[in-house]
Structure formats: C-alpha cells, structure tokens
Amino acid sequence: MIKFKTTIEQLDYLNTKYLEVPKEVVDELGTMKIRLLCTVNNSLTFQCGLMALGEGKAYISINAKRMKQLGVKLYDQVTVALEKDESKYGMPVPEELEELLKQDLEGKRRFDKLTPGMQRYIIYYVSGVKNPQLRLDRAIMLIENLKRSVEGKETFRFLLGKD
C-alpha cells in the first residue's frame, strides 16, 4: 500500500475534480496501466485507474457524490492510500449482468473476448441505475447487441443500439 497527501484540484477543460498522484507514487506503482483501490481519509474506498497529468504525474477522478460522502471540497487536502485492485474486472459486477452471463454462453464468450476497458464500460453502464429491472434490461440490450456486432470490431455506439 502506498500512502500520500494530496489536494483536490479541478481540470477546468473537463469540469472534473481530481486527486493528483505525484510522480514518485506513479514511479513506485511502476505503470499507469493499473487498476487500483483508492482510500481517501481512511474512510471511503473506491476502484479507480490513473490518468496521465503530465510531467510523470497522474490523477484520479473524484465525483461530487464521493466528495460529499467525505465532507470535503475543492482545494481541501486529503490522505490517499492506493493498493492494486486484484478483482477480475476492476469494479463490482451487478448481479443482473452476472446472472445473464451465466445463462447466455455465447454472450459470456463474447464478453470475455472484449478488452478490459470495454468490459468495464458494460459493467458501469448496467450499474448506472438503481432499479433491478432496468439493470436487467440494460444488461440484455448490451449483450444482445454485443452478439450481433462483428467480433473484434465492437463499439460503444453499437452496443448502445446507436449504429
């Protein structure tokens, strides 16, 4: 586990709040292509990845909901602890998607062949709603569109039914 102090900053061109990861920490991690568990102020842990910030530094996005949970605001200093995320997809898989992939062998085969980023996109999109029926509907739509797409040429737009 790597611990450090940082400040909550903002990328104006993306309107995104973030936690800066110093070059020394990036060097210690050995790569930016890594999924991590980020714990802020010893109280809130979430899964994340690093984005390049320039000069060897990186950042981790932090949304308004997490900032509210932590009781912090822009420019506050926080303590961050990072450790490698050993989970299969780098984020929790919704029960509805997990069950669908157990039952749909072709859907599971195609899902397993996707890049990790595309897999996480599907998981994130399905997780994006609270209603279990809506999560199931999203999972079915994405997996059905995945099976209809040309293998190796899948796009987010096609999976969403926009092509």
TrEMBL record:
* Pfam families referenced in this protein's UniProt entry, alphabetically: DUF1905, OmdA
Q: What is this protein called?
A: DUF1905 domain-containing protein
Signal sequence: where?
none
> Organism classification, top ranks?
Bacteria, Pseudomonadati, Bacteroidota, Cytophagia, Cytophagales
- At the top level, the lineage of the source is Bacteria
The species this protein belongs to is Fulvivirga imtechensis AK7
Cited InterPro entries: AF2212/PG0164-like_sf, DUF1905
